[in-house]
Write a structure and sequence with these properties.
Elements: H1 8-39, H2 44-53, H3 71-83, H4 88-108, H5 111-123, E1 128-131, E2 147-151, E3 154-165, E4 172-178, E5 188-194, E6 200-206, E7 216-227, E8 231-232, H6 238-250, H7 256-275, E9 277-278, E10 281-282, H8 287-315, H9 321-345, H10 347-351, H11 357-364, H12 374-386, H13 390-393
This protein binds flavin-adenine dinucleotide.
Flavin-adenine dinucleotide binds next to strand 1, strand 3 and helix 12.
Length: about 400
């Protein structure tokens, strides 16, 4: 049997997150967003509001201070943040913290690790980051140059990471390092690195095109000492288990705010097209305008159904790795094109800062790059449907 309806609890969740965001986050955001966007600064007052609502540990089990939300519930809540137009950069930082760092910790962490770290991520005492990408290239994420060598009861990490979301404000870093280069993806291990560990530092803050409220940075490891109890999951299973779980969430649930934002954009475009006139009639009468709106509406409906289906798979304990790649490929390319067309629809006003569509475009442009580029998603899907092994594609 298939049931496409959300149950009443999820409908209530969707409304309560939306109401909370509109009543508690937007009034703050309106005062500080433009200034912080130009200065590229994190909005701590908005982070406090995420904390107040329990979003920092939303999918974590209640015993570790979370809300025990399913992947589907997380999608619904995150989508509401997008619908309410909560700043894209702040939601990205929230996702890096909760999904990229917290979800693998809740999935693979030992009891001790969850007590030490998950509870602090949930309460906001720590800010989490996920560090896979390296300066030599993020697409080839299995040939890591960062190494980890066992020495007594410690691992010694050497190398560097780049483009790491939340790095300049981070306290806990989920770091991937090569523990056996000859094994490729089967020789990578995940480590939990605290910001004060000897030999570790944030080497640089990076400036970006969009999502500017979310700080991004580079990391350096110089004989960084990590205690052996900070290995997350099994040695050499950091990619096969931990990263693949992250990718499953990152390429689906983490994109749900953009589905909410697209819904908000659609509402804005409908109003604008009916009110703006040209040649004596509303521009909504022109087929060229109608097409842009219809294309957005159709993509949005497909995206939401696809997204919820993937979340449903995750909640059944499956790893919808290829489906998540397919969703990211479809939605990433679609939403970038739709926001581009939205600017076109609004003409000169689309290009001005007042309507914030130019900001939306700068923010959304990341989707086809971060979390694996569209080209890489195509490679993953091709490999799956053609039945090719990883080696044949690499
Ligand atoms: C704002 C931002 C935040 C990020 N946050 C994080 C984070 O928190 N943690 C983290 O670990 N990473 C993060 N990333 C990194 C992100 O995942 C990488 O940028 C992405 O995986 C691409 O890697 P790259 O930028 O090195 O591009 P490259 O790998 O250098 O690719 C360059 C180009 O070559 C293409 N290409 C590469 N290989 C192939 C192939 N086999 N076939 C066809 N085309 C190919 C790519 O598609 C791309 O167009 C972030 C990136 C950005 C921009």
């Amino acid at each position: 049997m298939i049931d496409f309806s959300l149950d009443p609890e999820l409908i209530q969740l969707r409304e309560s997150v939306y109401r909370y965001a509109v009543d508690n986050i937007l009034p703050i955001q309106e005062k500080i967003q433009l200034e912080l966007d130009s200065k590229e600064e994190f909005a701590w007052p908005i982070w406090e509001k995420f904390k107040e609502f329990g979003l920092l540990g939303f999918p974590f089990p209640e015993e570790y201070g979370g809300q025990g939300a399913s992947a589907l519930a997380t999608c619904v809540a995150w989508e509401s943040l997008g619908l309410a137009t909560v700043d894209g950069g702040m939601v990205m930082s929230l996702s890096a913290h909760t999904i990229l760092c917290g979800v693998p910790l809740m999935t693979y962490g030992t009891e001790d690790q969850k007590k030490r770290y998950l509870t602090k991520l949930a309460s906001g005492q720590m800010i989490g980051c996920f560090a896979l990408t390296e300066p030599h290239g993020g697409s080839d994420s299995i040939h890591l140059k960062t190494t980890a060598t066992k020495k007594g009861d410690r691992w010694i990490l050497n190398g560097s990471k780049t483009f790491i979301t939340n790095a300049p404000i981070g306290d806990l870093f989920l770091v991937l390092a090569s523990t056996d280069k000859s094994l490729g993806s089967a020789g990578i291990t995940a480590f939990l690195v605290e910001k004060n560990f000897k030999g570790f530092y944030v080497s640089r803050k990076l400036e970006k095109m969009g999502n500017k409220l979310s700080p991004t940075g580079e990391l350096a490891f110089e004989d960084c000492e990590v205690p052996e109890e900070n290995v997350l999951g099994e040695v050499n299973f950091g990619f096969i288990n931990v990263v693949r779980t992250i990718f499953g969430w990152e390429r689906s649930v983490m994109l749900s705010p953009s589905v909410g934002s697209a819904q908000a954009l659609l509402g804005g475009l409908l109003a604008y097209a009916n009110q703006r006139t040209a040649f004596g009639k509303p521009i909504s009468y022109f087929q060229a305008i109608q097409r842009k709106i219809v294309d957005l509406k159709v993509s949005l409906e497909v995206a939401r159904s696809y997204l919820y289906r993937i979340a449903w798979h995750i909640d059944r304990g499956e790893l919808p790795f290829v489906e998540a790649s397919s969703f990211k490929l479809f939605w990433g390319d679609a939403i970038v094109q739709h926001v581009y067309e939205a600017i076109q629809l609004m003409g000169g006003w689309g290009y001005m800062k007042e309507f914030k569509i130019e900001k939306g475009y700068r923010d959304v442009r990341l989707i086809t790059i971060g979390g694996g580029t569209s080209e890489v998603q195509k490679t993953i899907i091709a490999r799956a449907i053609l039945g090719l092994s990883g080696k044949e594609i690499e």
